[in-house]
Amino acid sequence: MSFNTFGRLFRVTTWGESHGPALGCVIDGCPPGIEFTVAEVQQQLDLRKPGQSRFTTQRNEPDQVEVLSGVLPKDDGSEWLVTTGTPVSMMIRNTDQRSKDYSEIKDRFRPGHADYTYQAKYGIRDYRGGGRSSARETAARVAAGALARKVLPNVVVRGALVQIGNLAVDRNRWDWDAVATNPFFCPDVEMARQWEELLDSIKKSGSSIGAVVELVAENVPVGLGAPIYGKLDQDIAANLMSINAVKGVEIGEGFAAAALSGEENADEMSVNDVGELEFASNHAGGVLGGISTGQPIVARFAVKPTSSILTPRRSVTAAGENVEVRTKGRHDPCVGIRAVPIGEAMLACTLADHFLLDRAQVGER
């Protein structure tokens, strides 16, 4: 299987499977002299790890990260590490695999999963949780994203869950501080209570539901990205689309822009009293012509309902027999919840890559 790497200068390769002994990432192209701690990486992984609430899979993984290469300890005897410019490798061990949960579907294709396509393409598949197609792989991306944030000077990347099923947040109640106070990464405290009731009902029925995640990156410098084939929003969309179960991505107004007039959609500009350029709005989501405007980057992605459900669904076996498949094991009733830190990581990695590309082409402004 090829294509396990993304990025041009800040290049991230992930490795490992859901039910293997470990998984991890190798980051090639991280500049030397970047300082970080293992605790900072672990903090991001802890946001994604399973079993933190009754609304996510109860797989019990500590997701303890180990930094294997590409760093030196600081001379001051502290916990800080410094990148050397060589590949940074990080590993996360799997400790709570239950491969027997998947024995019944060894020769059956689960509807909505990659079982059939993997088998058709490669002639072999890892039925134990999906192997590389499992969302377990994304832990490595979150580790890489933690380091990417350190490459980006002053840039703040945040994410929130803005919709579960048909229930969307009220943007008049948006509070970033509320995101850390509930198990949904929800910026609307009142909506979080409604989601709690909804997810309890969904989980009890053995079903699942989809969600929408919104990402915002602030203090992004002007000029990241390139016209035509190196657009910043192009790479953001591609990298967010690579996340498991994502079926749609939009930048700024996205699909809603189709309902706007030209007057409504245009982000008017003016110069303020101190000679600085200002935008009156941000319908473009911080990107014009594939290049960052200096406004916040705003992106959203839609996550489909978890395909692993208890309700029997019609499918076929590898031998071409008609069967019913009922997926056992431990699964998220809404994978969109834990997709928030994954989306943040992918946006951070994309921005870090474009920051280095921009610096390589035009230097420091």
Structural commentary:
Helix 1 crosses helix 7, helix 3 (138-151) packs across helix 7 and helix 5 (232-241) packs antiparallel against helix 7. With 365 residues, the protein is an alpha+beta fold. It is built from 7 helices and 19 strands. It has helices spanning 38-48, 115-122, 138-151, 189-205, 232-241, 262-265, 339-362, and strands spanning 5-6, 11-16, 22-28, 35-36, 65-69, 71-73, 81-83, 88-93, 156-164, 167-168, 211-218, 246-251, 269-271, 277-279, 287-288, 291-292, 297-303, 313-316, 322-325. The strands form 6 sheets. Strands 1-2-3-8-5 form a 5-stranded antiparallel β-sheet, covered by helices on one side. It has a 5-stranded antiparallel β-sheet with strand order 10-9-11-17-12. It is globular.
Strand order in the largest sheet: 1-2-3-8-5
Instruction: Write the element-wise H/E pattern from the N-terminal end onward.
Output: EEEEHEEEEHHEEHEHEHEEEEEEEH
- Total number of beta strands: 19
Query: Cα distance, first to last residue?
Result: 41 Å
Residue share in helix: 10-25%
Mean pLDDT: 93
